[in-house]
């Protein structure tokens, strides 16, 4: 362990893993709540075009990916508003257009080939540089600020969007903010787990946490905890066993999901039994005192 | 005089769902402190009326005013408490009763965090519907009637001047119906106006000032509920097989 921490590249890798482990589930919970668990995957496809554009224009692939992924995510949000019936097909066009665009553009870039994309598709946490790390930390801090600071508002729009509109909340603005936040998270996480596995880190810790929780805030906290647990242990495993970090992180996350599900099943059964005993009979007497003027 | 303006005023309103016209020249007014029930058969436009009033379905012709302002210029949404038709679908991520009710307080808190007064209003709303003891429970663990009470508490948390409710009694056990009736009585005593869609008046009958019966997107008749009293107060006694009573009032069909 101490040997691992002696290497600067591993220090950076673990710090990046920690930060991404916090940020990804913090955004993912809203997508899961809105039943858009695969949105992160779509954003990842679109981000690939951004990465390739970065190579073509000789600018930073990460910042170009942030820009293109944000535009893509806002596009998906607009499709959700306006495209009621064929929304899924429009999304498919956007996803695969983003993927194909990335492959096409990278091959137009001088000295570019699909090999350049591999580190972004599958992640390469051990090559995170000092400037990369600063970007990752700053962007993740912004993501957390939105996801925690506006949690009640984002909860409201994801839980019941129509009701949120009637309360007078700026629902469209919040939706766009959430889309951009998700896009930033995807691009931040792509160095750690890769664009193809980003969505897993946004969704699986949330799915795991909600097996054992009753409320939104506790689910948020627990999923961040699980996120950190799997990114750190996955990165550590990849160092010791010489296996790819992205795949290790995701497989550990799935393993944790299975373990928690098995452990939580008796708990859920007991809870359901109690709820049925409480709710089924309409126990008015114990919980309600009539209001009399 | 601002206080003389009706809370809700629809005149000659038309609206469509897709290409199907649902409202065909609807007139409806809810005055301050008034409780108005919308009744009528399925497809008569009750829910569409409610969703048009809250701005979720566009009114294609005619006028719609809230608190004396045309909908397009109405910004004071914290005065409106909306209770949607309860959906049976469980939400993706668990949420506690308190969390759901708190989201209704955003009508006043908007983008700022909830302060102590906000939290007290949330507690008061839960207390009013008898759900305070369940504040920490997941809404997915509640019965239909309890869930409906949570949705009403959510609307009340914003301390609205008008409550707009779509079928608040649907799938609600009799005990919860009485809780809702008491909570509503408390609200209307404090001057809150109410527009609600009902299939049957049930225990709410004594609260209702006016029953508006819709038929094919128009107002078929307006009745004082006392004229509907027998049917309204004893909906469960009504013999389903007795067509005479249905024709007489056009209420339960």
CATH topology of chain B: Rossmann fold
Q: What is the fold-level CATH name, i.e. the topology of chain A?
A: ABC transporter involved in vitamin B12 uptake, BtuC
Q: Which sequence of SSEs, written as H and E, runs from N to C of chain A?
A: HHHHHHHHHHHHHH
Helix content of chain B: 25-40%
Q: So how many helices of chain B?
A: 8
Main sheet makeup of chain A: none
Distance between the termini of chain B: 41 Å
Helix share bin of chain A: over 70%
Give start-end ranges of low-pLDDT stretches of chain A: 279-293
Uncertain spans of chain B = 229-253
- What is the domain tally of chain B? 1
Q: Give the oligomer, counting copies of the same chain as homo and different chains as hetero.
A: heterodimer
Broad shape of chain B: globular
Q: Most extensive interface, residues per chain?
A: A-B, 44 and 56 residues
Proportion of residues in β-strands of chain B: 15-25%
Topology, number of strands of chain B: 10
Mean pLDDT rating of chain A:
89
Percentage of β-strand residues of chain A: under 5%
Describe this structure in words.
The complex is a heterodimer of chains A (293) and B (253). Chain A has one domain: ABC transporter involved in vitamin B12 uptake, BtuC (Orthogonal Bundle). Chain A has 14 helices and no strands. Chain A has helices spanning 2-6, 8-33, 39-56, 61-82, 87-108, 114-122, 130-149, 151-159, 161-166, 171-189, 198-209, 216-241, 245-279, 284-287. In chain A, helix 2 packs parallel to helix 7 (130-149) and helix 4 (61-82) packs antiparallel against helix 5 (87-108). The model of chain A is unreliable at 279-293 (pLDDT under 50). Chain B is an alpha/beta fold. Chain B has a single domain (2-93, 162-249), classed as P-loop containing nucleotide triphosphate hydrolases (Rossmann fold), CATH 3.40.50. Chain B has eight helices and ten strands. Chain B has helices at 46-53, 97-104, 106-109, 116-128, 144-156, 174-189, 229-233, 243-249; strands at residues 8-17, 20-30, 35-39, 61-66, 69-70, 80-83, 162-166, 193-197, 210-215, 218-223. Chain B has a six-stranded mixed beta sheet with strand order 6-7-8-3-9-10, with helices on both faces. In chain B, strands 2-1-4-5 form a four-stranded antiparallel beta sheet, with helices on one face. In chain B, strand 1 (8-17) and strand 2 (20-30) form a beta hairpin. Classes of the chains: A mainly alpha (293), B alpha/beta (253). Chains A and B meet through helix 2, helix 8, helix 9, helix 12 and helix 13 of A and helix 2, helix 3, helix 5 and helix 6 of B. Chain B: Keywords: ATP-binding, Nucleotide-binding, Transport. Chain B: One of its GO terms (molecular function) is ATP binding.
């Amino acid at each position: 362990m101490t040997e691992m921490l002696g290497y600067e590249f591993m220090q950076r890798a673990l710090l990046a893993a920690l930060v991404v482990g916090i940020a990804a589930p913090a955004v993912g919970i809203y997508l899961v709540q809105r039943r858009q668990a695969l949105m992160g995957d779509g954003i990842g496809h679109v981000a690939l075009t951004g990465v390739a554009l970065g190579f073509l224009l000789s600018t930073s692939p990460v910042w170009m990916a942030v820009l293109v992924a944000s535009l893509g995510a806002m596009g998906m949000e607009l499709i959700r508003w306006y495209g009621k019936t064929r929304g899924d097909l429009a999304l498919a066009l956007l996803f695969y257009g983003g993927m194909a665009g990335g492959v096409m553009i990278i091959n137009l870039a001088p000295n570019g080939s699909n090999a350049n994309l591999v580190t972004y598709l599958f992640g390469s946490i051990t090559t995170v540089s000092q400037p990369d790390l600063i970007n990752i930390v700053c962007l993740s801090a912004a993501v957390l600020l939105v996801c925690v600071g506006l949690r009640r508002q984002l909860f409201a729009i994801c839980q019941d969007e129509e009701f949120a509109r009637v309360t007078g909340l700026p629902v469209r603005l919040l939706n766009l903010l959430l889309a951009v936040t998700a896009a930033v998270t995807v691009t931040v996480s792509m160095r750690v787990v890769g664009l193809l596995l980003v969505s897993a880190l946004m969704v699986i810790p949330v799915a795991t946490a909600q097996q054992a929780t009753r409320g939104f805030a506790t689910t948020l906290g627990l999923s961040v905890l699980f996120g950190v647990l799997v990114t750190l242990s996955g990165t550590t495993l990849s160092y010791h066993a010489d296996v790819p970090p992205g795949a290790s992180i995701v497989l550990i996350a799935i393993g944790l999901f299975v373990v928690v599900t098995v452990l939580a099943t008796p708990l859920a059964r007991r809870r359901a039994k109690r709820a049925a005993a409480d709710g089924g009979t309409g126990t008015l007497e114990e919980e309600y005192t009539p209001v009399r003027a | 005089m601002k206080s003389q303006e009706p809370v809700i005023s629809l005149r000659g309103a038309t609206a469509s769902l897709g290409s199907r016209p649902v409202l065909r020249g609807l007139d409806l007014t809810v005055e301050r402190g008034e409780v108005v029930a919308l009744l009528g058969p399925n497809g008569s436009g009750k829910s569409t009326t409610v969703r048009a009033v809250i701005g979720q379905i566009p009114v294609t012709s005619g006028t719609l005013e809230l608190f004396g302002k045309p909908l397009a210029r109405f910004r004071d949404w914290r005065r409106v408490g909306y209770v949607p038709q309860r959906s049976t679908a469980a939400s993706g991520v668990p949420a506690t009763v308190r969390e759901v009710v708190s989201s209704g307080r955003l009508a006043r808190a908007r983008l700022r965090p909830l302060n102590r007064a906000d939290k007290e209003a949330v507690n008061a709303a839960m207390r009013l519907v008898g759900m305070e003891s369940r504040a920490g429970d997941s809404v997915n663990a509640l019965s239909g009637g309890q869930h409906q009470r949570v949705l009403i508490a959510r609307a009340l948390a914003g301390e609205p001047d008008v409550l707009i409710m779509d079928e608040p009694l649907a799938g609600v056990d009799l005990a919860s119906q009485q809780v809702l009736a008491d909570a509503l009585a408390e609200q209307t005593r404090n001057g809150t106006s109410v527009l609600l869609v009902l299939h049957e008046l049930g225990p709410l009958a004594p609260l209702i000032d006016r029953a508006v019966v819709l038929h094919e997107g128009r107002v078929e008749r307006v009745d004082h509920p006392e004229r509907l009293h027998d049917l309204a107060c004893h909906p469960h006694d009504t013999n389903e097989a007795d067509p005479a009573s249905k024709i007489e009032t056009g209420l339960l069909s």
